[in-house]
Structure formats: C-alpha cells, structure tokens
Amino acid sequence: MTTSTEKNVQLLRTAFRTLETGDLDAAVAMLADDFVAYLPGSNEPRRGPDIWRAGAQAMLTGFPDLTVEIQDIFGADDKVTVLLQFHGTHLGTFQDLEPTGRKVTYRSLELYRIENGKVAAEWVAPDVISLMQQLTDDGRSA
C-alpha cells in the first residue's frame, strides 16, 4: 500500500520530469487552483498557477535544454523537500541577458505543500547568484 507521503514524493518527481519535457499545461495541471509561491526577493507570496507557469517558461526560454536532477527528496505529512540541480545551455534571453551559449549548473532547495493530490504551495531557494555569475563572468575572475 502506498502512503500519502509516498504519493506526494511521486507527484513532485512527476512534476519535475514533466517540466523537463516542456509540457507546461500538464505541469500546471498538478498545481492547486489557489497555488501560492513564496519566492526569494518578494515580500508577498505570489498566487495562482500562472505565476509558476511564467517562471517555468522563463527558464525554458533561456535554457531550452533544461534538465532537472533530483539530488535528494523526502516527504513528511503534507510536505516534500527537494534538493535539485539544474543544468542547461543559455540559448535564449533570460533575465534580460542575451544568449551566451554557456552551459550552466545551479542548485535549488525547495519545499512543497501538497493538498488533495496537487501542489498547493512552494518555497524555493535557488542559487541565483551562482547562476548569474555563470552567465555574466567574463573569465577574468580567479
């Protein structure tokens, strides 16, 4: 018998595989209608699946070959925590940066709350500093 915690972990595994395929409609279908995103740098939570879609689309536009490696994942009750490593090639505009062709890798630590079999909330802590350094470093740093 599969526990609800195991189902929640599997939901997140499926969601990240779906993101890699670029099927944002299928990924958004895994979100609750009242989805809430707690994002770094934002004083207020962002609400609704369209917030998630916009962020995912920005990543896929900037890094069309984006892959997501789950380095660790575990659940407890209605929460799932994931340590991810993203890989991609900067082939499209991202954060107003024109494509550099650089391959990038960065990590994110993320916490999700699952409700009624859907992702209801996320707290994400991506290593944006590392990502932006990889995109803007001109090779002069040690």
- Mean pLDDT level: 93
Largest sheet: 6 strands, mixed
Order of helices and strands: HHEEHEEEEH
Enumerate the strands of the largest sheet in spatial order, edge to edge or round the barrel. Answer: 2-1-6-5-4-3
Portion in strands: 35-45%
Structural class call reads alpha+beta
The Cα radius of gyration reads 16 Å
Helix content: 25-40%
Helix count from the secondary structure assignment: 4
Question: Could you name the ranges where pLDDT drops below 50 across 5 or more consecutive residues?
Answer: none
Overall body shape: globular
Separation of termini? Answer: 53 Å
- Count the beta strands: 6
Report on the architecture of this protein:
By secondary structure, this protein is α+β, with helices and mostly antiparallel strands. It has 4 helices and 6 strands. A 6-stranded mixed β-sheet has the order 2-1-6-5-4-3.
